[in-house]
Give the backbone structure.
Amino acid sequence: MASRLEEDFSCAVCTEIYKDPVLLTCSHSFCKVCLQKFWNTKGSRECPICRRRSSKEEPPLSLALRNLCETYLQERESLTSQRGALCSLHGDPLRLFCHGDQQLVCYSCRDSKLHRRHQFSPVDEAAADRKEELKIKLDPMKERLKAFEKAKLTCHETAEHIKTQTQHTKKQIKEMFEKLHQFLRDEETARIAELREEEEQKSWVMKEKIEKMSREISSLSDTIRATEEQIGAGDLTFLQNYKSTQCTLQDPERVSGALINVAKHLGNLKFRVWEKMQETVQYTPVTLDPNTAADNLILSEDLTSVRRGDEVQQLPDNPERFDEYSSVLGSEGFNSGTHCWDVEVGENTGWFVGVMTESLRRKGNYFSRSGLWFVVYTGAAYRAWAPPYDPTLLTVQQKPQRIRVQLDWDRGELSFSDPDNNTHLHTLTHTFTERVFPYISTSSPLRILPVKVSVRLEQ
């Protein structure tokens, strides 16, 4: 409840303590800004209380009233700080904390009907209890803050890595297309050269034919001229020379195959170029995904081979990436059908080859979790692993240089064999229910081998 003194120091327009009060000729005072707004709204200079018109556009400031208001505000602030906050309903100090409404109250509030059935505590006890609660919550919040700061840093690193990936990938795309463009330019040059060679050859033949025809024309013209002279001679002379003027007439030779063999040069040109292009390109059934590779693995430019590096790379710790083991996944997963790929292991003395489910978490030690099937070679023995990860020792007569992985997702079979001598090593069985990805873990270089591409024409 506002005191009488506070009412005396309050503007009738804004009901707040005067700010820069001005005095009208009618002796009423108002805040300078409040009075000006009132006049602008009304459209006339009249007192908001008594409606008496003011003759002055700029009423004088009441310095005495302003000083009194400032003194009152300072004293009220000092009193509040000494006595504590006051109840807005009763004007008494707020000494209690209501647990029911979770707010500060005075003793009069405690005895009122509004808080009659509530529990109360002294302000210092309630504050101490809640500070302790906040302290308990503070440590997890600090840990969460650290987690967010770390995540933000990871996002910054990821953003920079995205730029690096983009630049590197763009460079590789340009290089690959430049090779294709160069192949096409070479093919274009070779085929135009072949066309020009045919042009030169057939132009030479036609030149020889033209020269022969010119000789024939010249000879025939001479014969015609001589014959015409004989016809104009006397009968006796004509008959004496008639036999000598006989000649054998032949038709001009037709030149077959003289034109450029356009069909040879243009027929199925795109197909024949594409067919020849197969000699320069390769298809690999599995390409490795660099976003899953552990930070100590280095992938080849074409993403078909992997080796362990000498140093750990600075890579984003994204959820897809392995962090504890030197592992990498294929870029394409399978959830149906049959699939086959060969892994060149060579003299590698430590490798894992198989498949992993998409949902299996790749951080930490995942070998004890369900979702991984593979054959492993440790330099001494070959073993097959499948959930619940009881290793099966394999009998291998000859050390394979290549491991063929054959996945029949629908039948739930994962087979391993040596393609060089067509020897079956082991088959793991499982009813697959989700997408699986080719899995490789290694300490030495491994390579996914390309397969031969063939063209089949269908009528």
Summary: The longest strand covers residues 338-344.
